[in-house]
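Good day; I would like, with your permission, to put a structural problem before you. What I wish to show you is a protein chain and, alongside it, a tokenised description of its three-dimensional fold. I would ask you to consider whether the tokens describe a fold that such a sequence might reasonably adopt. You will find the record immediately after this paragraph:
***
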Amino acid sequence: MQNYKYMKDTNDFRRLAYLPGTFLSLGSTVVTEIAAQYPFKWLLLDMEHGGFTSDTIVEHLRALGDKPIMSIVRIPAIESGLISKILDAGADGIMVPHVVSKDQIETCISYMHYPPVGKRGFSSSVRQYLYGTSVPENASEFNKPLLFAQIEDVEGVLNAEKIASVHEVDVLFVGPADLKLALQYDASNKLSYEESLKIVADAAVNNRKKAGILLRNKLHFDLVGQLGYSCIAVGSDIATLRSGCQQIIKDLNDFSCH
């Protein structure tokens, strides 16, 4: 058995019942290294809103090293070259924002997978395969990348069952901020946020997929847990830094009162 140093077993992720993670947006390799010291099951490296780029992402994958943490990269758009470059660099999976249809996610899958499932180009010399020194006999079957379909629109909620039915989708992941905004301003919408959360969770559970969500308040844990959410991201590096600075100011103010 060859040692695939850069390739973690994505099926380990699929087998776990509870999957805590967090979002990284700053694009600092130091922050990525720090986050990797803790028992997260996955880290989201954000290229949509964060400071990560296709040219710097490999440095963050190196920072994760041999830690048993899945690296999920949120892409800004479904582009063949971008997805291929991220996976060639050794990322364990992709998060796709604003998924609203089955056809949309199937297009992404075609870029993520080698034939016969998709049309991703194969190179044995990429970092994923240790630059040609550790190449699997059948790349089409080996360690298939994880796919998070992010549900952030009313149309995505209504099509959640169809999206979850696609075999290669691993997680239906709710983006609360965008979904709340969409629910508020979609004139045809009659769903509440709570109803939408249940629809997405039910679609995931019915199709034996994970339901995921980003939370910023631990008071919401019980609610999403009861609905069936198990892939939980808590906050982000920016939120952690912000709350830390707020605590420092509070401590300094308390000291000045003495």
In short: The radius of gyration is 19 Å. The CA atoms of residues 169 and 194 lie 23 Å apart. The beta strands are 19-24, 42-46, 70-74, 93-96, 146-151, 171-174, 210-215, 231-236.
